[in-house]
Amino acid sequence: MFKHFALMLVGLVAITACGSGANGGANAAAAAAPAAQAPAASTAPAHEWQLGADYMLIDPRVPTTTGDKIEVVEVFSYACPHCAHFQPAMDELKTKLPANAQLVLVPAVFNPTWEPFARAFYTAKAMGVLDKTHQALFDALHRDHLPLNDIQSLAGFYANQGVNAASFTSTASSFVVDSQLARASQLVRDYGVSGTPTLIVNGKYRVEMSAEKHIGPPEAVDIVLQLVKQESAAHK
């Protein structure tokens, strides 16, 4: 079943999140509208967001991968249209994060149709083209509605981005990518994530969109910034 959250533009617009019961792949791509521009997040939270009401504690804490830096994770999927809608907010968050915080992307695989997209993510990362292709793949799926449903069709997409298709296919089926997929799936379970997009701060806090709680992309960004500030103060 779809999990609902709100996208704040002029007013509160309720949209659904992609979850463990959602249809991914071609169905998700065909149903999605072009990504909307989220309003810029404010420099500081408008008010104090509350644990247990606006964001959740992850217990036990999940170890981070960013050393001394505060880790901010987005759990997402290219197959999820709402991750495409959320991308402008992620771009805004990148500009707001302090130097002692680092953004990490973790692809979710809630059903078999999502697996090729997770493989594509780690393959693009391994081949050094992730920054170039991340938004482009969202656009291809959710703006242009291209039928990119498997590794072969995705290899064609990446070939158009200057990647060797044979190398892409070989890397996508490698042991390294298999291991990264297994690790990502374990992280999603450990985080307690049931829908995308979801944000995780320092392995301790889970931030989810919620129409009921009036938490859309701008609010989620504010909550993350508050938690990053809180974690920064705790480590001084």
Description of the molecule:
The chain has about 240 residues and is of the alpha+beta class. It has a single domain (about 5-235), classed as Glutaredoxin (3-Layer(aba) Sandwich). About 45% of the residues lie in helices and about 15% in strands. The protein contains 8 helices and 8 strands. The chain has a 5-stranded mixed β-sheet, with helices on both faces. Strands 1-2-6 form a 3-stranded antiparallel β-sheet, with helices on one face. β7 and β8 (about 205-210) form a beta hairpin. α2 (about 80-95) crosses α8 and α3 packs across α7. Residues about 1-15 and about 20-40 have low confidence and may be disordered.
- Rg, alpha carbons: 17 Å
Largest sheet: 5 strands, mixed
CATH class division: Alpha Beta
Question: H/E element string?
Answer: EEHEEHEHHHHHEEEH
Share of residues in helices: 40-55%
Q: Could you report the average pLDDT, rounded to the nearest whole number?
A: 87
Question: Which spans of ≥5 residues are poorly predicted at pLDDT below 50?
Answer: 1-15, 22-42
Number of helices: 8
Decide which structural class fits the backbone.
alpha+beta
CATH architecture field: 3-Layer(aba) Sandwich
Report the β-strand fraction as a percent range. 15-25%
Instruction: Kindly report the spatial arrangement of strands forming the biggest sheet.
Output: 3-8-7-4-5
Number of domains: 1
The counted number of beta strands is: 8
> First CA to last CA: what distance?
43 Å
The geometry reads as globular
CATH homologous superfamily caption: Glutaredoxin
Could you tell me the CATH topology label: Glutaredoxin
